[in-house]
């Protein structure tokens, strides 16, 4: 079991967290907003195919064989009653949807390594730019050949694989330890905003203008975001030309108090990663969490259409509702998590385990319940899915930020390692859905297969919860510590100067 002897955060170390530069003038919150928009763009381009595919493909439609059921899917046509363009079966569709993750898995660790040494700004920005370019090419690829569409989705995965490691590397330099939960959850929650936006907007665009417009619209927005990112964001507080001295000193001194060096990473403790119990706890938990997350983000519109029997426009809007709620839970959960730590009500380890357990167990329970909903109880199904998916947002303040707790100096590459291995559910989950539903041609049989899928996800969530409870930690590991002697001397000098300002009644950060 991981060490549970972590002390509560020292009041003297956290006191200044309530005396901040105003949010509207804060460069660290500016980074949070720009990265939120970045993840928003990335996820719109990742999941728009899940809705567009419903409009692109002719699905086999047969009435239920069970005479006690009258759950008959609607005929699959486009808005202007023209038949859909492609005749791909369920296995082909899930191969196309899962192709993204075959690329996503390969760039995680290199991205963390590069961002740790050279900064995450360019790595993150180029990741979204290349994703946008491939998104713009998607209609051409789909109409040329099925294999070319798969190749484009793999390329998008390669481009987006850099995002989480690069952003963790940036927060290593920008997030004071006591603000990690709130800043990182604001930043990473952009992904759920992207899903929330992409699903209904994609449905509307497909209905009114045709499915290719979905890819042209989101790809263009991604290119525009890249331009704004390059002009407004910088790798570290020291690099930012417009940051105030007060905010820069607050961030740097907070990191140095924790023992985190401000210099760029020069070496990576690969062996320590491989032998660390908390790291393995993160890896296993990340895999378990991603199983349900990736399966739902990829297949939820299909479930809404085939099991709950919503039409294309309803499908997009109702599939977005859970992710709106998840975004709210993530952001508010991050605020609460840091408040519990700041007020010394719970240690960092206790906060991470409490939020992680709550998120994973609640999602597992409500996914299983959703599997028993009839097509006559459509909105009850949406309610169960909403509660379950929203609850998983608590996990953002659990294991997903824990990389910054146990190894802040190596957070980028550590996130790359865990997210790389945890990408497996991205293509395994849709493949399992495709395998289970391939021969289910009636509504009752498809519902039964989805029940199996939800039970599998629920069991995996329970295993992930127990793993993090037993193996998780909230303290910086010994192998991740580095004594920044010269920087500590400078920090102590800065602290003395700030103490003089305090004596004069000046508010500092």
Automatic annotation (TrEMBL):
<feature type="transmembrane region" description="Helical">
    <location>
        <begin position="122"/>
        <end position="141"/>
    </location>
</feature>
<keyword id="KW-1003">Cell membrane</keyword>
<dbReference type="InterPro" id="IPR050382">
    <property type="entry name" value="MFS_Na/Anion_cotransporter"/>
</dbReference>
<dbReference type="InterPro" id="IPR020846">
    <property type="entry name" value="MFS_dom"/>
</dbReference>
<dbReference type="GO" id="GO:0016323">
    <property type="term" value="C:basolateral plasma membrane"/>
</dbReference>
<keyword id="KW-0813">Transport</keyword>
<dbReference type="GO" id="GO:0046942">
    <property type="term" value="P:carboxylic acid transport"/>
</dbReference>
<protein>
    <recommendedName>
        <fullName>Sialin</fullName>
    </recommendedName>
</protein>
<keyword id="KW-0472">Membrane</keyword>
<comment type="function">
    <text>Receptor for CM101, a polysaccharide produced by group B Streptococcus with antipathoangiogenic properties.</text>
</comment>
<dbReference type="InterPro" id="IPR036259">
    <property type="entry name" value="MFS_trans_sf"/>
</dbReference>
<dbReference type="GO" id="GO:0015293">
    <property type="term" value="F:symporter activity"/>
</dbReference>
<feature type="transmembrane region" description="Helical">
    <location>
        <begin position="270"/>
        <end position="292"/>
    </location>
</feature>
<dbReference type="GO" id="GO:0006820">
    <property type="term" value="P:monoatomic anion transport"/>
</dbReference>
<keyword id="KW-0812">Transmembrane</keyword>
<keyword id="KW-1133">Transmembrane helix</keyword>
<feature type="transmembrane region" description="Helical">
    <location>
        <begin position="379"/>
        <end position="399"/>
    </location>
</feature>
<keyword id="KW-0770">Synapse</keyword>
<keyword id="KW-0458">Lysosome</keyword>
<dbReference type="GO" id="GO:0030672">
    <property type="term" value="C:synaptic vesicle membrane"/>
</dbReference>
<dbReference type="GO" id="GO:0016324">
    <property type="term" value="C:apical plasma membrane"/>
</dbReference>
<feature type="transmembrane region" description="Helical">
    <location>
        <begin position="96"/>
        <end position="115"/>
    </location>
</feature>
<keyword id="KW-0325">Glycoprotein</keyword>
<feature type="domain" description="Major facilitator superfamily (MFS) profile">
    <location>
        <begin position="30"/>
        <end position="476"/>
    </location>
</feature>
<feature type="transmembrane region" description="Helical">
    <location>
        <begin position="453"/>
        <end position="471"/>
    </location>
</feature>
<feature type="transmembrane region" description="Helical">
    <location>
        <begin position="213"/>
        <end position="234"/>
    </location>
</feature>
<dbReference type="GO" id="GO:0005765">
    <property type="term" value="C:lysosomal membrane"/>
</dbReference>
<feature type="transmembrane region" description="Helical">
    <location>
        <begin position="183"/>
        <end position="201"/>
    </location>
</feature>
<feature type="transmembrane region" description="Helical">
    <location>
        <begin position="21"/>
        <end position="40"/>
    </location>
</feature>
<keyword id="KW-0769">Symport</keyword>
<dbReference type="InterPro" id="IPR011701">
    <property type="entry name" value="MFS"/>
</dbReference>
<dbReference type="Pfam" id="PF07690">
    <property type="entry name" value="MFS_1"/>
</dbReference>
<keyword id="KW-0968">Cytoplasmic vesicle</keyword>
<feature type="transmembrane region" description="Helical">
    <location>
        <begin position="411"/>
        <end position="433"/>
    </location>
</feature>
